Amino acid sequence: MSFAVPSEVYARFMGRYAEPLASVFAAFAGVSTSQRVLDVGCGPGALAAHLYSIGAEVSAIDPSPPFVAAIRQRLPDVDVRKGTAEELPYGNAEFDAAVAQLVVHFMTDPVGGIRQMARVTRPGGMVAACVWDGPTGALAPFWDAVHVLDPAAEDEALLSGAHRGHLTALFEDAGLRSVVEEPITADIEHPTFEEWWEPYTFGVGPAGEYVRGLDADARARLESVARGRLGPGPFRVVATAWAARGIV
């Protein structure tokens, strides 16, 4: 799974959805001014930037060196480190909240990662995460087009948390209390089909890897099917994510 890409490439692929989602997710998580918050799997900083803008004391961690470098440049006051959710390099109860936006489904051990988030959060603090819904998330229009040509293709609907109740089960297995799970949405307008399509050719994540694995003819067929379904633009993608929060 490749996320070791330049931050500007990721921003064109997923940042266009992650940035509007960040404010909705932070509100769901209940993050407020002056709280110490850890952003786990921070990417190039969509959520961290929003948390910083509302006055939270933000720390961040991600396994991708280009993303770590991008946040250090973008948010020099944020303590950002290279690392994974499963091995967080922080002491017990260091934070008021730990949050993970669009990350749990890529953790090698989701329960272990969430358990680590709980460990570094103080008793009574909040752990929260969100993951795109498989059938209606940001990438659903892409995978819908794929399945017209390749019905057996394994899309991201199979990843951890991608359906109602998955995150709740993971949170409860990690020992969190009073878990609440709700759908949240981001509404994004794409001005042209080309603006929507091109980032899928960058090789980012499962969708990008799928496109990179196609030969030129198959890629052209997929592009044609997607264009036929979405039109030339402008068009809107209303992307739904499942969000869960629980108390340590």
Automatic annotation (TrEMBL):
Belongs to the methyltransferase superfamily. GO terms for molecular function: S-adenosylmethionine-dependent methyltransferase activity. It comes from the Bacteria. The keyword NADP does not apply. Residues 38-128 form the Methyltransferase type domain. GO terms for biological process: methylation. Keywords: Methyltransferase, Transferase. This is Class I SAM-dependent methyltransferase. Pfam families: Methyltransf_11.
